[in-house]
Amino acid sequence: MDTDDIIGEILDKIRPTEEERAFVESLMMELKAIAEETIESLGLDVKPHFVGSLAKDTYLAGDHDVDLFLTFPLDTPLEKLREKGLELGKAIAERLDLYEIAYAEHPYVRARYRGVKVDLVPCYDVKSWRDVRTAVDRSILHNRWVLENLGGRNDEVRLLKRFLKGIRAYGSEIYIRGFSGYFAEILVIKYGSFLEVLKNADFMLRQKIIDPGNWLKREYELAMKTVRREAEADKPLIVIDPVDPRRNVAANLGWEKYGRFYFKAYQFLESPGEEFFFPKGQEVEDYLAELRKKGTHLVTLAFDAPNLVEDVLLPQLERSARGFEKALSREGFNVLGWNVGRSSGKAFIMLEVDRRERERVKIKPGPEFFTERGWDFYRKNERVWIRGKRLFAEKRVKENVIDVITELIEKNQVGLGKGIREAIKGADVLLNYVPKELEDEAYLFLSREKWNLKG
């Protein structure tokens, strides 16, 4: 099957059907009407705006999350926007199915309506980047720019998004560090099509800077400040936001996720297949057999996950894993790799180490040499010497990695994430054993299949 046939089959699966489009349109009309009625009833000067993939028609079939932004006039004080924005969001959500308060730069409301997730986000009604006061304000500008520049290439964006999801490189959250939907839209607008984006994977990495808004000519000083800052931070790409010269759209993109895209783009162009978009589940084997084969050991710390959102919890787990890696290397254990996550209410840190025990030499002080106890000490120990009138001996002891880790935690000698430090102190520390729900995770980690570029 050639590339065009594969792309055609993928599009049939990811392009919304006419029935789906009708559902989405009626959903948005209902939400807009509810928002406008609520705004009027509260006497507020606020306009509702849809942003995100639904508003830009770049959403994938079955993916209907709604982003409804509630725009306040620019002269609204920030505290008032936060207070009234939350009040308005809750009032709208009261008319939907259910809701909860979530927190980002300021509180917003997460609701559900007709089975679809709806985010109700207060922001400023910005007209340009100079008006931007909070991180979410740019979304209005992003929406406008994509609609003005996409030029009917909506399906090309869908292909790129599904490809990035399939290779596990989609999402700009700090615990994913991949490509955002807006980033995917920019790449399609810049290079023209899904296939052209893949063909330019190497070129864009060497070029480093992508400037679709032409800011390096229009606002050179500001744009160069962004370039210098991001280059210093060693980011894979610097994509100057076409609506704001101060921002790198690829700021959260990590080298690992760009590397996955780099190799998978090449592999797809060489040998296209549906599995790039819809990968089969990874085959999982026995993690204990993997340990025996490698001759290494697995230490797992499992503890009750604190009530933190993923993009706060995961970086703290990663920081703690690096802390254990550093502390154990000081203690003579080589950490070959680490893995973190949350499963069934438990957070975990997995460490693959080269040995389960270390030999340590201890100096053992004994009694005075001319006593009966001195003779006893002399007979029992292999290396014995006198310092002054007392006997001393050298003793070799074996220390288990679990005991070493326990002592490191007790003595606060590990750099741990601030929000999970106390939880880790109460962790179960397991050697070469994991609870049943973590067995697959342990195998994927130990075999490196979790990250294998050839898989």
From TrEMBL:
It catalyses: a tRNA with a 3' CCA end + 2 CTP + ATP = a tRNA with a 3' CCACCA end + 3 diphosphate; a tRNA precursor + 2 CTP + ATP = a tRNA with a 3' CCA end + 3 diphosphate. The keyword tRNA processing applies. ATP binds at residues 53, 56, 142, 161, 170. CTP binds at residues 53, 56, 142, 161, 170. Residues 37-142 form the Polymerase nucleotidyl transferase domain. GO terms for molecular function: ATP binding; CCA tRNA nucleotidyltransferase activity; magnesium ion binding; tRNA binding. Mg(2+) binds at residues 65, 67, 119. Transmembrane segments: none annotated. Its cofactor is Mg(2+). Keywords: ATP-binding, Magnesium, Metal-binding, Nucleotide-binding, Nucleotidyltransferase, RNA repair, RNA-binding, Transferase, tRNA processing. It holds the Pfam family tRNA_NucTransf2. It comes from the Archaea. Residues 294-426 form the CCA-adding enzyme C-terminal domain. Its EC number is 2.7.7.72. Residues 155-278 form the tRNA nucleotidyltransferase substrate binding domain. The keyword ATP-binding applies. GO terms for biological process: RNA repair; tRNA 3'-terminal CCA addition. Belongs to the tRNA nucleotidyltransferase/poly(A) polymerase family. Archaeal CCA-adding enzyme subfamily. A single active site specifically recognizes both ATP and CTP and is responsible for their addition. Catalyzes the addition and repair of the essential 3'-terminal CCA sequence in tRNAs without using a nucleic acid template. Adds these three nucleotides in the order of C, C, and A to the tRNA nucleotide-73, using CTP and ATP as substrates and producing inorganic pyrophosphate. tRNA 3'-terminal CCA addition is required both for tRNA processing and repair. Also involved in tRNA surveillance by mediating tandem CCA addition to generate a CCACCA at the 3' terminus of unstable tRNAs. While stable tRNAs receive only 3'-terminal CCA, unstable tRNAs are marked with CCACCA and rapidly degraded. Homodimer. This is CCA-adding enzyme. The lineage of its organism: Archaea, Methanobacteriati, Methanobacteriota, Thermococci, Thermococcales. The gene is cca.
